[in-house]
Structure formats: structure tokens, C-alpha cells
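Ticket #579: bound-state structure for thiamine diphosphate.
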Amino acid sequence: MRDVPVASPRQENLWGSDAIAAMLRALDIPYLALNPGASYRGLHDSIVNYLGNERPQMLLCLHEEAAVAIAHGYAKASGRMMGVVLHSNVGLMHGSMAIFNAWCDRVPMLVLGATGPWDAARRRPWIDWIHTASDQGALVRDYTKWDNQPASVPAAYEALLRAVQIADTAPRGPTYVNLDAALQEAKIGALPPLPDVSRYRAPPPVLPSQETIRAAAHLLSAAKSPAILVGRVSRSEAAWKARIALAEKLQARVFTDIKTPAAFPTDHPLHAAPPATFPDGRLLKESDVVLSLDWVDPAGTLKAAWGDSPIGAKVIRVSVDAHIHRGWSMDYQGLPPSDVYLMCEPDAAVPLLLDSVRARPAAVSPKKELPEQKDEAVSIRSLARAFNELTAGTDVSLSKLPLGWNGAYRHFRHPLDYLGTDGGGGVGAGPGLTVGAALALKGTGRMVAGIMGDGDYLMGVTALWTATHYKLPCLILVANNRSFYNDEMHQERVARERGRPVENKWIGQRIDQPDIDLAAMARAQGCVGIGPIRQLDELKPSLETAIEHVKNGAVCVVDVRVVPGYDAPMSGAATPPRR
Ligand SMILES: Cc1ncc(C[n+]2csc(CCOP(=O)(O)OP(=O)(O)O)c2C)c(N)n1
Ligand SMILES: [Mg+2]
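RESOLUTION: The complex was predicted; output attached.
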């Protein structure tokens, strides 16, 4: 899966970008997803001809948004950061929405950029001027953890060490290092000695004080009806088991969020309701103590339960997230009350709480399951059902789910069973996230499958070429309602409120006349493309064929024409998503 360069002669005299490349290898950056550009032609040459295109290896992408989404998906599935290289200002602009997604998803990523030459006297006419911007990092500063434009090789070493360390320190996120073209292309002679990277690693998790653990344990042990909101947690199996043990010891109701990756077995008797974007406020309202394990939106969730009345439960907040709350983006959500505030990651707090709480008597809450309904048309529900039947006994990692997915459609029983959504609500991430997960999980025996809307697919479809070129098997099922349907629902809402004709809701939303041949777009990039599937009896056989192709190493896309419409959310969501 690597493009192998012809050998390059060994040279005594090196270039600035060779040193930067050597530092990337020392930092163990496995891949660089990129779309090329002259602003970093020096670094490009160093990766190919100085490092031989390995450790890091380039992954060519057809769009910068795909490059960043691939790095995002890779980090979600592996917990490890990879790099992205974005050409000067224009590539950075293309990649910026995906950087925002990664930021909101708290995913580590090293974003490299380039500019210049910063020295105006060395700029080529026209193009170097267009592609030089003052303070280029300002484009992404509000949704990266740190950025820098180093002016020398030693400064670049330090910038890369710091960028990787900061990106990997919780709360994790992308960092941006902008490499001056002149620095990359400067002759430097011998390689300046590389620092010992082991001395610059991210710190180990911070532990909460004994006092706060005691206070939290006291509230939980004395609770009549505790609830746990499990949000952003790691993919560790040990941490997964510890959460189960804590919930069982406390006999607490557990809620999970469809915005974040699998965090608790959804078929466990204590799992209160299917994972949802807006969890069931009515169920939560029965709780007197709520333990929020880095839940994305605790304030919004508590408000959904208690409305404008004071929140009738004690709240224990476990999160380091406030360390990166700043002024520009409000992705930090509302400010939740916290009667006990543990400023640490959930994985650090849970084992300590488990040791400190008293066991509560069993009181299993009744489970809500989606009522059995016979499939009458091809819908997201029937797609889910067929997929579930065909993958029983296969380890699957779902890298994306469509907006119309109901959390009751499929159970998650392992931290890798579901990798969450796009973080920032930026449509178009689905294909790239899927390819990134496929890169991370290749060879593990897990099948990566992204189920996504046609709008999401169409915006990000060229990420698929990267998957076919580098032989990264994955399955993409397009829940194709031929519409930006989420927004049809918004138009319907507005029309109703204003007493205007609801039947116009499709205008400016519907993607038909002509219908787009989604499978052909996949085939054009070397994937197996199946569909459109219109009939219920075609659904299962075509998915079966698709799964077989993926198991044999293919990238396969199935265009499934689903009827427009979302299942009534199971878990009390009164508000349709406004995105
Ligand atoms: C980059 C971006 N553009 C537009 C939107 C607004 N938006 C939210 S959902 C949506 C529709 C997505 O369509 P599709 O993936 O087909 O899912 P469907 O709504 O049809 O279920 C749009 C356009 C967005 N969130 N992000
Ligand atoms: Mg759609």
C-alpha cells in the first residue's frame, strides 16, 4: 500500500525540509495525508527522496477536506495521531471545515502547512505572492490548540515537538505548524542533532484529588436513582469494563450519545435508552444524582430533563474539556452546574470511583426497544436490519451513521463497534472518516462500514480514491433519499409555523432530475459500486455481495434508495436537529 520511490543518493549536504522530515519520523508520525502544492515542495521532496516515503508515508488525497477527515477517522479508530499537509493558504482553506470537525471531536492531529517564501525578496512573481499570507494560522487558530511558524530548523524541531505534545494532551485536538518555503528549501549541511523525543511526550492522565473522589462517591453511594451520562471516552477495553463495573455496582441507569463513539454496551440491562443526539429527558429526570463522564452537552441534556426549573439532581462533572474553552466557537455548549467537579478524563476517574462507591441494591430499569415493525419499503430501518442480519458474528466498526439513524437500530458491544459522528456537524466527513478508520483498522479483522446520507457522500466522495489506491477495504452504504432531507424537515417546520405550503419544502433541497448515479461515482474511482437498490427484496442480496467484496479486500459502495423520512426518535427528542 505504499508508493515506492527509486533510491536517492546519500548526501552529506541536506536541506531544511530534510531535517523537518527526520523530526516527523522521530515523532513516529505514521502517515501524512495530503494534496500537493509548491509551498511545501521542499518537504514533499524530503518525504519521498530523503525518507523513501515511509514513516511517515504519504497518502495522496483528491481534496484537503478528505485529507483532514482521513486523519480524523484514523485518530478516532486508533487513538493515535497522524499528520496532514495542506498547501499554503488555499489548501488550508479547503481543509478548514474538517479541522473544525476534528477540533469539536477532540481528536489529536498534526496539521502542517506552508507559506512564502516569507522573505519577499525571494518570492517568485505572482504565485508565491498569492500563496503567502500574514499570520496564516489565524485561519484556523480558533479551532486548533496551538499554531506556529518556525523561522529556523531548531525552531521547527521545537515547534513539531510542542505541536505533537499539545495535540496529544487532553483535551486533545489539532495543532498547526506552518513551514516557510524558504526554510524548507534552505541548504543546511549536516542534519542538526535530533532531540530525544521521549523527553517531550504528552503527560500521563491527571488524577482527581482524593477529596473530590470521596465527595463524588458519597453522592453516588447515597443516591436513590443515579444516572451516568457516558460521553467522550477512549477505545480502551479495560476502561469499557471499568465503566460496566461502576454502573453495575451503583445500579445506575446509563445513557450514551450517538454523537460520540461506543461507550457502553447498548444491550446491557442498565443501558437506559438507545444512544441518541438528544437523550430522553423524561427518563433522566427520574435521577437524583447524575454522573457526567465528559458528556458533550451536559447543560443541554439537563435542560431537556428539567426545563426551566432548577435541576433536581446533584451533578458530578468529570471532564478536562474546559481547558480549551475559548471565545470564538461555542462548541463547549451551555455551562452545566457541578456539585462535584473532577477535572480529569473519565478513564482516570472511573476506576477510582469504582473503588470508592458503596454497592447499591439491584433495581433494573425496564428497557425500551424499538417496536417490531414489518419492513414495507427500503428505509434506513430496513437497511439496518439487513445489515445486522448479515454481520451477525462479524466484528464491524461503524465509522459513520446517517442523520436518520435511530440508535435502537443496532447494538454496540465493544468500544470499536461505533466510532461516533463528525464532531462539528460539517457534512461531507462521512467518506473520509470511513477511509481513515479503514487505514487504522486494516489487518485487524474488523470490517469498517460507514452508513451515510447521500448529501454527506456526495460532498466527500473523492476520499474513496485514496482508499482504493492504498488498498484500504471498507464498505459504504449510502442511505440515499435524494435530498438534503434534514433541511426539508426544517422548511416544513418553518412553513407550518408561518401557515405556508408545506409541499414546497423540497425546493432547494431535493437532489433529483437527474438522479445521481452514486455507484458509478464509486466505480469511477476503482471501488465496487452496487445499486441503486430500490426494492426490498434486492436489499439483502446486494448487501451480502458487498460484504463479500469488502472481506476480499475491496472498497465497496452500495447506493440504497431509502424513502425520505426519519423514524420517530426513540428517546424523547422533541427537537429535530438544526444543523
Ligand atoms: C458543510 C455543511 N453544509 C450544510 C450543512 C447543513 N446540513 C445539515 S444536515 C444536511 C443534509 C445532509 O444530507 P444527507 O447527508 O443526505 O442526509 P439527510 O438529511 O438526507 O438525511 C445539511 C445540508 C452542514 N451541516 N454542513
Ligand atoms: Mg439525503
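RESOLUTION NOTES: The two ends are 37 Å apart (CA to CA).
TICKET STATUS: resolved
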